[in-house]
Amino acid sequence: MVLALILALTLGPVALVLIQAGGAGGLTAADWAAARFTVLQAALSAGLSVALAVPVARALARRSFPGRAALVTALGAPFLLPVVVAVLGILALFGRSGLLNRGIEALGLPGVTIYGLQGVLLAHLFLNLPLAVRMILNGWAAVPPERFRLAQSLDFGPRDVLRVIERPVLRATLPGAFVAIFLVCLTSFTAVLVMGGGPRATTLSLAIYQSFRLEFDLAHAASLSALQMALGLVAAFAGVALVSPTAFGAGRGWRGQAWIAPPDPRAVARIGDGVAIGGMGLFLALPIGLATAAGVTHLPRPDAALLAPLGRSVAVALGATLLAVAGALALGLALSGWRKGMARLADGAAMLVLGTSPLVLGTGAFLALRGWADPAAFALPLTMVANGLMALPFALRILLPDIQTLRADYDRLADSLGMEGLARLRLLVLPRLRRPLGFAAGLAAALAMGDLGVVTLFSDPERATLPMVLYERMGQYRMDEAYGLAVVLVLASFGLFWLFDRMGRADADV
Amino acid sequence: MRLSLMIAGFLAALPVLAAAEKPQLTVYTYDSFTADWGPGPAIAKAFEAGCDCTVKYVTAGDAAALLSRVLLEGKGSKADVVVGLDTNLTEQARQSGLFAPAPALSASYDLPVKWTDTTFVPYDWGYFAFVYDKTKLPAPPTDFKALGASKLKIVIEDPRSASPGLGLLMWVKKAYGDQAGEVWKGLADNIVTVTPGWSEAYGLFLKGEADMVLSYTTSPAYHIEAEKDDTKAAAPFTEGHYMQIEVAGKMAGAKEPALADQFLAFLAGPEAQAILPETNWMYPVVMPKGGLPASFATLIKPGKALLFSPEEAAAMRAAATEEWRAALSK
Amino acid sequence: MLTFEGVEIRQGDFSLSADLSVPEGAITALIGPSGAGKSTLLSVVAGFLVPTRGRVLWRGADLGPLPPGRRPLSILFQDQNLFPHLTVAQNVGLGLRPDLRLPAPERARVEEVLGDVGLAGLGGRKPGALSGGQQGRVALARALIRDRPLLLLDEPFAALGPALKDEMLDLVARMAGRAGTTVLMVSHDPDDARRIAPLTVLVADGRAHSPVATAALLADPPPALASYLGK
Question: Do A193 and B195 touch (CB under 8 A)?
Fold first, then answer.
């Protein structure tokens, strides 16, 4: 049911645009070049994010230090910055007049240029590394502590731990994390263009934008989005085909320590973990700090002009969160009961949403609505649905491993007691999945706060969300006000993220 | 869900019910036009004072989104008037057959070029220009060749997604014709990056990522008026400056054709023209009685205005974009 | 009477056939080498596994169409018998109503049963705060409160020390005797069978044999059992 709905909402808009265009348009050599660059940057971005996330996640898993909980929570932050703000923050650090280059110049050395493929990767790394770390760390947290104790008692060396525990964890989490980030980068627009340095960095998203907005060539636009979606589909299926659950089974859940995995006492490991954690902390904190510093002195007054869009954004975020989490939970519970092949197929199909162009989604929705309703009246519900839809695959990724564990551990007991339907949901599923549900909800809320702008065709000043107001301010020279709004937006998104994540972790003792 | 849809529908219908006694003029425009500090609210208020009607703004993101929406809606569009296209878009708009001829206006436009378009009414205009910081760059380049030969860094917008980017494309083409490709090759190493929209480019410039940014000759006026900051200036180029003229048009299927004509005339009239300079930061098409605002006094006045006709612009866009792409992809 | 009627279970190279009846009101042990299929047989009775062929009947009625929770039985697994996030009282209360909407008299009943198994006053604790023996008692209390005519034990006390295990088995025997419950228990320890189960079903060589008197079977084991017992 949920799956059919997702597919209808994903493929429907493309179909509608195709119908409106009266057929598909051919693809040019430039389109294929754009497709190649798109895949290249997305694959490199995802690969790099995942590769760097592994040591960081491992370090976070096996070390306890003051502020660890706060850092783990903060890992949600870059993901929820509006891309423009995030990019300006990165440039404040790595740009031509950024801290890095000023430091290099002070030493009398030639500066480094960030624009180009390296810049695109850096921006995507900044935006996605935290997500990758959280997804992999969740995999570590799902390993019953007994297994680590067993490893300790058998005097496992780092190699043995890698083989017996870490490799299965990575097999279970890496493909999903890679695919999720690949798909996000596949449709990335602003970050690629600003950091790309010129038309060499031309992506499919830009080509879609161009054919839609400049040439109004719907047939061409539909073909391009179909190509983008096909690429996403290949990646999604390849990814889910590689995922293999850990099969560590259940433990009694008692930890009794702050760390997830036993700390590796060797000095080299301690230093390595310190560098990994510290490096990532700085890599994330500095751009955020620099991006929002400009806004702190221009905080907007808490009047109606701020509170109304903020309220709308929060409402949209909460609605989208409910949709994403409920959808992912329903889909995950259904998937985990299906045969393996079917389940993987469905899992891949759900990921497809991420490969959809917001522009096509918005246009499709507009075409669907215009016959019988004022599209502007649906701007907010649509934003809610679109954002919920985009967050669903992430929520599913987060929930699925825990759903599988839950079912392996407690299905028989619940069946033998006749716990069914709502009672089972209330007494077993929701409490046992509290932690991943909280994280998934937090992420969905934060994502939705950042908005996607699917409704640019029929936005309405009376129904503007905070990100829309922010972009409007930027479009009218009011950069400082925009930075001020960005601070509010970041605080609000982060607040929602923190709240949900916290709810999931509060006394998640057993 | 069904309930919320009903509520949404009901809420959407409310303003229609409330305004049922007075005729309503539906104006489609881009969203910064209707923002609190944009020209929309003041213009609507002034117009409503004399028309015994209500103005309803319907927005799409920017000029290109606006045209997309009108084209998607086709003959079924609820729009009476569309405000916010520019001369790069008007040919496509005209060819759709969705627009009616403009009313005969008595206004004599203060435009550097002769206005001959009979479908659209201009309401403001500006010159594209490279904006820089006077305190950091005492002697800016005076033409594209000097800029290309310099070590200065510039940030520009992508012609495939932003109207200033398209404007720059046309600027170079109009000034250099067949040699435009060469000029772009000369500029390639000056371009720090190409952004999807004006906001990103201007933001990067203000953050110090580039020495110059492609914007408008009127941009410094905002800094002078709103921030009391006179360090920003536009560099005059000897080739002349390409123009952007923003226009409004009446829909052929307008429900309120008379009000639409009245609104177009109002837009080009003294009241609206006095509102536009310091809300949209563009030149008025008819000089207001009190002259230009003080903040506009120090702006450069290009010696030569460049502009392709809408037909020329539409015809050469694809080839010029490809030339640009090829030159910068090396 | 619990009847296995031409039951056959095949899973890869594993196969087990059972064609036998277990009398009501008695405790019957399932004994045999590990991997022979003792737990598998319980899974079929409990409804977690559908036999390849044949039926399982309780008092002449086919259990096949009933989902696990509707079968006239309670089962205690080797582990995961309790939900760690629910309190002891809630875990027991699930036996009365799977949605835990318990009216006051039923809550009192939970307290009473907890008293019966020696856990009075511990209803508010979570399982993690109990010892292994106490956790076993909670699971037993739930089986008791469900009051089903059949009780399946899949070595739930295997992890306990010998004294504690004997104590738990005696508790099972006492409770079953009082309620007239039919008990089917898997065991790998012949002493368990000797202690509380008058009858024993030997599961070996792909077959579950008809129940025979435990004492006689252990005194003169057939070859398959003899090698398992190390005699």
Answer: yes
